[in-house]
Amino acid sequence: MKNIVCILACLCFSSSAFSEEKFPEPFGLTWGMSEVNLEKHGFTLASDSDGLKIFSSVSAPKAWSKADMYVAITYKGKLVKAAASSTEFKDDIYGTEGKNTYGQIKDILSKKYGNPTNEYERVGGKLYDDADEFYQCLEYAGCGTYLSMYEVKGGMIAIQLKGKRRGEGYLSISYESPEFYIAKKEIESGEIKSDADAL
Fold first, then answer.
1. What kind of fold does domain 4-10+25-198 have according to CATH?
2. What strands, in cross-sheet order, belong to the sheet with 118-122?
3. Phi-psi region of 38 (alpha: psi -120 to 50; beta: other; left: phi over 0)
4. 0.90 cut: is pTM over it?
């Protein structure tokens, strides 16, 4: 559960382009797969809110070698988003291990999908500006960000380094399918209608 909140924070990525081409399927999962199939692969329900169900697992059909946890998000019973977080980088005061892992994943994705659509790689914006405060800076809002996003076939792939405390952090990778954006729009539309009925 330690990284679920942080992975959920990545839900803010958005895309307006939709395509009939198939969006990449990560970790051996299939877009639209049922919750029953997720459970067969070891995923268990972690949260259920606003029409989205969040499942977590320590394994996946096709494992990422550095993964510590996987998250699968369903809408109307079907998989629309998948994410993974790495094992924690510890005693990594200058962020060397984290930046190396981030760079390796970025290279893999860039070879497959081209350069990132958006990327933000800076630290020391405010408060934590010393070299040995790398993860503290990433954890502090407005101080720094290590994030690359790829708009691919109507969906979004994002990789982000996250800080936990001094010398400790982890990497998250998330895949938001085109159906995820449809789900968000339907949920937002339902909330607006509900608010209109309430007022």
1. Protein Transport Mog1p; Chain A (3.40.1000)
2. 44-49, 52-57, 67-75, 78-86, 168-176, 155-165, 145-152, 118-122
3. alpha
4. no
Q: Cα(84)–Cα(107) distance, rounded to whole angstroms?
A: 17
Cα–Cα distance, 172 to 70 (Å, whole number): 10
Task: Return the residue matching tokens 């990778």.
Answer: 173
Instruction: For residue range 43-75, list pLDDT tens digits in order.
Output: 999 999 878 999 999 999 999 999 999 999 999
Looking at the chain, the number of H-run helices and the number of E-run strands are 5, 8
C-alpha 82/C-alpha 70 separation (Å) is: 7
- Outline where 12-140 has alpha helix (H): 35-40, 96-113, 134-139
Q: Would you say 60 and 40 are in contact if contact means Cβ atoms under 8 Å apart? A: no
Length of the chain: 199
Closest Cα to residue 81, out of 104, 46, 54?
Answer: 54
Domain segments of the chain: what residues?
A: 4-10+25-198
The residues, ordered by sequence, that sit 6+ positions from 35 with a Cβ below 8 Å of its Cβ are 45, 53, 55, 74, 77
